[in-house]
Write a structure and sequence with these properties.
single chain; Rossmann fold; 2 domains; 11 helices; 28% helix; binds adenosine-5'-triphosphate
Length: 395
């Protein structure tokens, strides 16, 4: 049985629909990443799972129980936010124990002095002590239990925030961009730690991010969202290798997948008006579907860029192009190019980056800007998308 089911879940704020008919089944132990641009509705989805935002229509189930009307507390979830407000005057131990103490608090414990005494008593209770220590161990915080948050690094503080939200041993773990306030190195370390936590607790994780590296490295499945609609739900590999539409193809991958406007010619196909050799197979696909044009997608790493083509490859497709931009990244070079021969004077400054196509090639190859070249690729590296709807065309 799936641990989390979204059944036509819709959320509107007034007339504005933020989530439109979201349906998905998430299995026990899955690490689902909700990925998409700012404002696409990721946090709203997570807040609906947590019970912090009401669902407008549709059903949300934990196991076989409909939870639409359950309070956040009744749902038994852990929620880790982007900004982790730890209590600065409390030790790491007390911060982690806090949710357990609150579960045992009664109204009169809020009376001054009474609360402090009750808290100290509760901290000595063996079940609470055990849970705090077990959670601290899981997040490698045992050595820091008696420190205050200000004596911890950013990554350690974020681990305390994670510990605090999981100490109640929830069945579902929710994360809302928990790493976006950390620097690149810490983010990498925390990515590995959250994946390790998932492997240890073996529960369902739902993780919101707009960072494709986090999505690709951590998720067992990714839901790519845009405008409140799931564009594709699949494994990181599925999404990279068989994107469902142009949006997904461009959202995942760096640089984004190249998309060429291609049209049928007598001999095959042309891209951006430049003939493509050996393209009769694709032309055949277009004719069989009554299409005069198509969007051709090719990943940057699938191109070879040849400035002096000394050999011919009978199986490769190719077209003439000229280089416009070079980014040396060490191990590889990103070559920005335009289809067609170089004009007499190449105005490099005039080329807006979004007008270029990109190839990623080994760093040891050298190029000049403004040079004519031949761009080669294989038939199997081509993705076809409908020119109007942008949907993938299976061949
Ligand atoms: P980000 O990555 O920037 O956090 P997001 O994908 O998490 O974005 P949401 O926070 O879910 O996006 O917001 C989705 C849309 O819903 C946005 O257009 C937002 O303005 C709108 N929205 C969110 N909360 C409310 C609200 N309480 N009232 C009205 N509109 C809202």
């Amino acid at each position: 049985m799936p641990s989390l089911t979204f059944d036509n879940v819709t959320k509107s704020f007034g007339k504005f629909t933020v989530i439109n008919d979201f349906s998905a089944e998430i299995d026990e132990n899955e690490f689902l990443v909700l990925l998409g641009p700012s404002g696409c509705g990721k946090s709203t989805m997570l807040r609906m799972v947590a019970g912090l935002t009401e669902i407008s229509s549709g059903e949300l189930k934990f196991g076989d129980e409909v939870v639409n009307d359950l309070t956040p507390k009744q749902r038994g979830i852990a929620f880790v936010f982007q900004s982790y407000a730890l209590y600065p005057h409390m030790s790491v131990r007390s911060n982690i124990a806090f949710p357990l103490l609150m579960d045992n608090f009664r109204w009169w414990h809020h009376i001054p002095f009474v609360g402090g005494a009750v808290r100290r008593q509760l901290m000595k209770r063996s079940d609470i002590k055990d849970k705090v220590e077990r959670t601290a161990e899981m997040l490698e915080l045992t050595d820091y239990l008696d420190r205050r948050p200000k004596a911890l690094s950013g990554g350690q503080r974020q681990r305390v925030a994670v510990a605090r939200s999981i100490v109640r041993e929830p069945s579902i773990y929710l994360f809302d961009e928990p790493l976006s306030n950390l620097d690149a190195k810490l983010r990498m370390q925390m990515r590995a730690e959250i994946s390790a936590l998932h492997a240890r607790v073996k529960k369902t994780f739902v993780y919101v991010t707009h960072d494709q590296v986090e999505a690709m490295t951590m998720g067992t499945r990714i839901a790519v969202m845009n405008g409140g609609v799931i564009q594709q739900l699949g494994t990181p590999r599925d999404i990279y290798e068989t994107p469902a539409n142009v949006f997904v193809a461009r959202f995942i991958g760096s640089p984004p997948m190249n998309i060429f406007a291609a049209t049928l010619t007598d001999d095959g196909l042309s891209v951006d008006g430049v003939p493509v050799t050996n393209s009769h197979h694709i032309a055949h696909v277009l004719r069989s579907r009554d299409l005069q044009g198509v969007s051709v997608g090719i990943r940057a790493e699938k191109f070879s860029v040849l400035t002096s083509p000394v050999f011919t490859d009978p199986d490769a497709l190719s077209f003439a192009a000229h280089t416009m931009l070079l980014e040396h990244l060490g191990a590889e070079t990103v070559v920005g190019f335009k289809a067609g021969q170089a004009p007499e004077r190449v105005d490099v400054g005039a080329a807006a980056s979004h007008q270029l196509h990109y190839a990623r090639i080994p760093g040891e190859q050298h190029y000049e800007i403004g040079a004519n070249c031949q761009v080669r690729f294989k038939d199997s590296d081509i993705h076809l998308f409908h020119p109007e709807t942008g949907e993938r065309i299976e061949r």
